[in-house]
Amino acid sequence: MPVTMPHDLPARAVLAAEQVFVMSDDRAGHQDIRPMRIAILNLMPMKVTTETQLLRLLSNSPLQIEATLLRVASHVSRTTASEHLDSFYSTFDEVADQHFDGLIITGAPIERLDFEDVDYWPEMTRILDWTRSNVQSTLHVCWGAQAALYHHYGVGKHELPQKLSGVFPHRLTDARSPVVTGFDDEFLAPHSRHTDVAAADIESTGRVDVLAVSEEAGVYLAASRDGRQVYVTGHPEYDADTLAREYARDSEQGLPVAPPAHYFPGDDPTAPPANRWRGHGNLLYSNWLNYCVYQETPFDPSGA
């Protein structure tokens, strides 16, 4: 089934060219079915790229998705045109009285800042508190996962000696969770971050279970037992070349970064990388939509 999005959203043309089933607002209005209302709080700097990646994953489901793009009002983006934000994004205050079946909170390249030093942290805490009453299930990604674990449970993050970047093998630690239904016992996923959260700190909350870990990259996936909070420390939404573009950017800025681990063929940064995590990424988002959102959300989302 399709993701419903505005006709002139740039992501729509990209996904249509990939044969992804997308639908205009007008056509969706003629279907006798209630779509799942999914909001995306996009904190990444390259917002058009991120919204395309996430909408691609949301489209791989039998459910009709009505996507709402959100931004924080207390931070001015320097990398996305204001015209794009004004045309396609809402602020939190504009939707605060609404209920959503699901919410995705993306990462942000600010991991080395203390949470309280982030200029939009007060707004972020309001949003995280709001999710408890107005969202059936929230999927937190990378910095979004660290921020939520810190705000909800006091789980701190730890700065790594160097940037963690690459595609790492992971193993399931709890195969009983619906979030990992159909997962292989071992699977690959990309990471790109400067900080980490400890599995012991997450488990000590008594309310969040660690579901998958990597010997090299640490915790990858965790979830609350009721499925209303899902935490992903990596980036299953990344395109095949995203880590390569990040590495080139950091290298051009003279930053001391190593090539992403287990990523370039033969560890040759000039060789085009392959996407070896696409299947796992699609399964993760499909499971979240099915088991944490669709199976649990009330027919009337205002009762979430």
TrEMBL record:
CDD domains: GATase1_HTS
Residue intervals passing through the bilayer: none
Keyword Acyltransferase: yes
A single GO BP: L-methionine biosynthetic process from homoserine via O-succinyl-L-homoserine and cystathionine
Pfam family, one: HTS
NCBIfam families: metA (TIGR01001)
Entry-linked PANTHER family: HOMOSERINE O-SUCCINYLTRANSFERASE
Protein name as annotated: Homoserine O-acetyltransferase
Lineage: Bacteria, Bacillati, Actinomycetota, Actinomycetes, Mycobacteriales
